[in-house]
Amino acid sequence: MDNEPLDLGTDKSLLLVDDDEAFLKRLARAMEKRGFEVETAGSVVAGRAIATGRPPAYAVVDLRLEDGNGLDVVETLRERRPDSRIVVLTGYGAIATAVAAVKIGATDYLSKPADADDIVNALLARGDALPPPPENPMSADRVRWEHIQRVYEMCDRNVSETARRLNMHRRTLQRILAKRSPK
């Protein structure tokens, strides 16, 4: 994918909305290398302002942002530019949020960590054609570990509360948390 030029059309504008600043910068650089004209936002407010003032041809929006829900940005963008291609990214993969994202106009939905090639494939996929599967998807063990870590953080690192919400024995959870993340 690195050597072949992408067919982005005449409007190469891309809005990236994510509150993880390091991820946002890395993704912006990667997308610029692929020919996009990138504009970034770190919040729902900033993302909606750009979507209203300069609606881009493409957008990648994180679902959960510090100041609200990324779907608000998707809605604003869909109202201002119905032909925009929008991919929703999230570390909290769930069927319900995927359905909600697509219903309000997202083109696709990817779980973090998605790499730039996966995102480009999703942005440029046309019609009912699914993008090719990722070259190196996360292992099932890694997906499980990521989910446990998210719930643990949401419970303010309270092991007992996390174990209760995951319907897991507290000692089992403690052993999992003590280990390194799987590959």
UniProtKB/TrEMBL annotation:
All copies of domain Response regulatory, residue ranges: 13-127
Coiled-coil ranges (or none): none
In-chain residues carrying the UniProt-annotated modification 4-aspartylphosphate: D62
InterPro entries noted in UniProt: ActR_PrrA_rreg, Bact_response_regulator, CheY-like_superfamily, Sig_transdc_resp-reg_receiver
Pfam families reported for this sequence: Response_reg
Keyword line: DNA-binding, Phosphoprotein, Transcription, Transcription regulation, Two-component regulatory system
PANTHER family, alphabetized: PROTEIN PILG, STRESS RESPONSE REGULATOR PROTEIN 1
Name of the featured protein: ActR/PrrA/RegA family redox response regulator transcription factor
The species this protein was found in: Marivivens donghaensis
Lineage: Bacteria, Pseudomonadati, Pseudomonadota, Alphaproteobacteria, Rhodobacterales
